[in-house]
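Thread: quick sanity check before group meeting

JM: Hey all, I'm pulling together slides for Thursday and realized we never actually wrote out the predicted structure for the chain we discussed last week. Dropping the sequence here so it's in one place. If anyone has concerns about the input, flag it before I start.
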Amino acid sequence: MLESLQQKDPPSEFDDVAEKNRKNQSHGLNRVDRLSHVEDYTAAQEEWDNVQTVEPILKSPQKEDLPISPKKYIDGTSSSPAKSPPTSPPPLPPNIRVTPHTDFDEVWDFFTRQDMSHVMGSIKPTLERRGVNGLLRSIFGPKKLKAELIDERNLLFAIAQCQFDNSEPIHLQILQTVYKVLTSTKVDCPRFGNHWDVIGFQGVDPATDLRGVGLLGLVQALHLLTHEALLPLARDIYRLSHDQHSQFPLMVLSINVTRISLQTLREGYLNKECNCRSNVRHVLNEFYAAVMFYIYWIWKTECKTIKDSGFLIKDAEAYCKRNVKTVMQKLQLHLRKYSQQEEGEML
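JM (edit): ok, ran it. Output follows.
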């Protein structure tokens, strides 16, 4: 699937998802509305309707959303009459689960404590340097990674070799966090079902889309969605993915950007930045976000459609790989604009 995106014709997975959306829109339904029609939700629909949803996490906080200090309830000098603390919400039905959100740091800590020897033998963290081309690359090519950063780099490639495991709680927690942050829902969704199409997976099982990048495909999406500075960008990309003209399967795109990021790291183009920061994972995640922004910006400003996706991803890989510093600087400039907008709204 991932390799098909590099061919001349647009990848079939993008077209399939777009065709699904057009059919649903012709009956007056958008992608999110179709959740209520999935058979997996039929039995629990009434209970879901009674569960309070949370405020969208991608929404910028407003002053009126801030929690009220408990002092208001106990300070006798307050000009307003004393109020009773709000009552606790009723307990959830037994078949409804609310898994706590996780983030990249928690997931990274988990993997650093795991025995990854079963996949370390199959990773390919660097390109083999053979013959004249290998000699020229060693002389004129990217700098080598510092020795003290090799283990961290190898662990990232090892995570990319790990497949989704339904018996591992943190794997499920990552998947549920990605879904709930994007859709602004509170309760867990079923592990299998057509609802995964809402966030841009291809079928009823998201794990089938992770082939080629393994769990790292989910972990990098998790970083984009749970890193505070990146939340506004994540919100805009998700919104564009549901635009009637520009719509595209977000998670399919994200997985392809993870593949681009890994290949860029493998070819050594991120080594200079990693050496400067003495860190690999943060550089890889920032480069991933920079490529996502690069594709998003072109898609939006040039009014791209699904038919352009294959060419756009191929061009993005070639440009971003050769201009690492530039695309990362453009990302930071754009994030600062978000910050300035939020500061202006709070004044």
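AS: nice. The radius of gyration is 22 Å. Residues 36 and 219 are 28 Å apart (CA to CA).
JM: adding both to the slides.
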